[in-house]
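Quick one - inputs below.
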Amino acid sequence: MNHLKSVILQFGSYTQFIGRFFRTILTPPHEFRQIMRHVDDFGAMSLPLIAVVNFIMGLILAMQSRPTMEKFGAAAFIPAMVTISIVRELGPVITALLVAGRVASGIGAELGSMKVTEQIDAMECSGVDPYNYLVTTRVIALALLMPIITLYAEFVGIFGSYVAEFLATGVTLRYYYGQVIESLTFVDVVPGLLKTIAFGFAIAIIGAHKGFNTDSGTEGVGRATTSAVVLSSLWIILIDMILVKVSITYFPNP
Amino acid sequence: MIEIRDVYKSFGSGLRPLQGVSLDVPTGTNVVVLGKSGSGKSVLLKSIVGLLIPEHGSITVAGEEVVGADHKTLQSIRRKVGYVFQSGALYDSLTVGENLAFPLEKTRGITGSEARERVMHYLEQVGLPEKVNKMPSELSGGQRKRIGVARTIITEPEYLLYDEPTTGLDPQTTKEIAELIVHLKQDLKITAVTVTHDPYCLHIVADTVAYLEDGKILFNGTKDEAHRSDVEFLRIFFSLQEHRV
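Output:
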């Protein structure tokens, strides 16, 4: 019973927190400089890890596919198969999970520390809306950044698959990318990128909510950081499941 | 003037720190609030500035009601009231200069050379102009508190709320902070409420003393009256003061 009550209270708290985002986004001041600072920070925080992981993922995907595809005489379809897997699903989801690990924990820890050291109270006392300055700017920054870093991650992932194919067959980069471009359609690229905006929103909102509601000192900051990563990872998978269904309905395969 | 009338505040955990608190803070005075740890002194300060909302009662600051105030009224009240936090509450990601410039830029629209001049002026007031480019992590506890005071007074509030301004400091720094509070009251005519456990700080800064226990103000009077009071906490407090001052 207590668990159910806690779930309902959490749901109410998130609803209120998200509602506040949509209220503050419409009212000035709009902290553009702060948004750009966060875009810069989040990008710098995540890009190296995303590049390495997506490169290796593309490489492994091509290496794993080759024996089976060869068995069915379909090795020529490896670029198309790997590309569509990366662009439609693996690129957005793996990138979002990596960003959740890096950025949700960062937001949770930073805002949590600010909460327990009364910096958020100090900001409120000085007449600055801490939600607008600390939360809204981070949510907008990450929602804007996610499609860009996902595009970058997909490019690096496809390059990884090319390296695997080059080592296996000596295929040229020009030919491989020709095959990649030929296999892609609007329906593969755009829904995949659009859903990353929802991922970015969820990651930043969950991280900020955990940070903003931190208590019990440094122990609370640790808890906020961990649960920000766990919860945002879970929500990425749930949102993906819902949006895949939506995209199949509204953007059926040609 | 700050007028607090019959204020009640409780928390979900069952804690009821304020149960009918009434207190007047006349313009130009510094009222020191004493009480045991966890007696609700900080809750009272946070209620004055609207960080916590009482369930019942009335708090007016310069005639404006805090309890039940809308966002706009709270903003107007917060322009008049400064809050000096126990730890200084400096923004970790900003330098000392940026910490001071932050409220100026965000709430008064003052930027550029005017902001820089004001920042240096108030850093000089707290005796730390050379720290302008330091990060908060590079400062000692006493320096953080002084910078916290500078950041609060830079917007020139009419009222200041000090939450344990000298706790955890060495005697020299305690003396400097206490003298700074007196200096701000005399030079800038700031009305203040100070929460402290420090007998020396009380001795230096208090015009009147209020004692909070069981959610109520049990004593409110001058320092001399507090000294002669038969409230046990005050007797112990002043006997400590005699030993230390």
